[in-house]
Design goal:
Largest sheet: none
Shape: rod-shaped
Radius of gyration: 47 Å
Number of domains: 3
Number of strands: 0
Distance between the termini: 129 Å
Length: 151
């Protein structure tokens, strides 16, 4: 029969084969009930201190939200500025291209008014007609006139 001196009670050190070593592992000499109570109190104090240290103060939250709003506002302002500059540049380029096209048309019209009229008719047909459109020309049509006499 096993007595208390022969073998310690079963516990987390059952894997240790040496009985004397198992006894030493189960309860170290310094682990008196009073010392264990002190260790528990210290651990609880440390947990309380660390949880309060990790808490974020409402002032810090408000400050962070304010900074986030400021950054978001700057981002929106920069985005609008970039879009405005891009629109301005696009309008300038479109204006220059229209002016150049008008100059070319004016020069063509000055050289040959009939060619200019023919070219404008083709542009109009290109915008109006798609691949499925049927289109009947009258005898007085400019396009038909130009197709008949290639000049």
């Amino acid at each position: 029969m096993n007595t208390q001196d022969d073998e310690p009670p079963p516990g987390p050190t059952d894997w240790v084969p040496d009985i004397q070593m198992r006894r030493r592992l189960q309860r170290p000499g310094w682990a008196t009930p009073r010392m264990l109570k002190l260790v528990v109190l210290v651990v609880l104090a440390l947990i309380t201190l660390s949880s309060t240290a990790l808490q974020i103060k409402p002032e810090e939250v408000a400050e962070g939200e304010g900074e986030a709003a400021r950054i978001q506002g700057e981002r929106q302002r920069d985005l609008l500025r970039i879009q405005s500059e891009a629109y301005k540049l696009a309008q300038e380029l479109r204006g220059k291209a229209d002016a150049e096209a008008t100059a070319i048309y004016a020069e063509a019209y000055g050289r040959d008014a009939d060619f200019y009229a023919f070219f404008k008719s083709l542009e109009t047909y290109e915008r109006v007609i798609d691949g499925k459109t049927y289109f009947i020309l009258g005898t007085d049509s400019d396009l038909l006139k130009y197709l008949r006499s290639p000049r």
